[in-house]
Amino acid sequence: MTVASVNPATGETLKTFPSLTSDEIEERVALAHRAFRDQRRTTFATRAAWMTATADVLDSRREDVARVMTAEMGKTIVSARAEAAKCARTMRFYAEHAEGFLADEPLADPSAVGAKAAMIRWQPLGVVLAVMPWNFPLWQVVRFAAPALMAGNTGLLKHASNVPQTALLLDELFREGGFPEGCFQALLIGSGQVEGVLRDPRVAAATLTGSEAAGRSVAAIAGDEVKKTVLELGGSDAFVVMPSADLEAAVATAVTGRVQNNGQSCIAAKRFIVHDAVFDAFAEAFTARMRGLRVGDPADEATDVGPLATESGREDVVELVDDAVRAGATVLCGGETPDGPGWFYPPTVLDGITSEMRIHTEEVFGPVAQLYRVSTADEAIGIANATSFGLGAAAWTTDADEKELFVNELEAGAVFVNGLVASSPQLPFGGIKRSGYGRELSALGIREFCNAKTVWVS
Fold first, then answer.
1. What are the pLDDT digits (tens) for 427-440?
2. N or C: which end of the chain has fewer CB within 10 A?
3. Do both 98 and 195 map to the same domain?
4. Residue 127 shares a structural domain with residue 249
5. Of these residues, 232, 363, 411, 440, which one is catalytic?
């Protein structure tokens, strides 16, 4: 079996790589396990030096790394550079803060439990398997790897099969930054080989970002083995606009939120729920801006929206849009697959979405926006929460009571008021319902793959 890197803007195969054999997988798992026994005893200062050096390497190679991402999965070169820069910042964040996040937590009154001293001590679990997606091929990995390595764990990466060059680049970055052999390794393997790695007794835990189906599979295997998992799955984020909102800012953010990463983001705004008082104005301005985006070569600095990453991904988007149109949705812009090479799909706005349409309940992973008209905040919340997903949500209002209402009532792992839903190392990231469980980033993220050891001393 081979793993292929294909340019989605042209359909051209760039490179192919052989999948690892069973013996090669065994060698890498054994190496990761040996590396962990040493890594867990290194100091935070030592790990921080390696992580900071890795960030420096990434900064120095940012342009090359960005161009590989653009060529492999079609994100615009501008967004690819930004992704690389964000990864370097996150590496430095954990280099600076990991020791504080994992400092011993002493019990204020140990005598209450009959001890002279009592505390929580955070210790690494071991080898962690990361199953990662193609849409943010650098960021998704770094937001796991930076905290996990700084905690003293070691990592095995099973990246999406369409981004093998990015996976191997990550190997190089951590190695060039000074992390010892075995601390981080990319495994070029197929999905059918994941179970064997996850069931290996030397692998302590797993994290997955991807589809619900993939999450169910990994969670079931890990559950059978009684191993810790963190899952970040799909999303169908709501974007609520109320009458008091700054409409110009809301429209601009809505466009960015829907087409970021060519519309292929779990936390992209997908369902735009707009109050009747401002619906027509929002829809007109939003559609005009979506229609005006430049679709084309992602390597061109002027391109706003590149191709979808895979041919099958575009087919999925087409099916959802066509189903909605057949059921009565109105296409305000886009909605037709362009002729020519590559897996492009235009920014599309659909009005008149009903519960009978597949797009109402399924995640559309492309630059397609759904408009809903509501007359009250409670109605907006009802539509926003009428989904099996619960990753992120945004609400636009300047009314203090409405702000509090949306923060409390929107069912999501993150609620952003008057802003774009985004991830950052300072805040925890993750979902509820079928968007997954556990948290990445912040102090919570680094603690996910640690043992909270209770220490009692007489």
1. 999 999 999 999 99
2. C
3. yes
4. no
5. 232
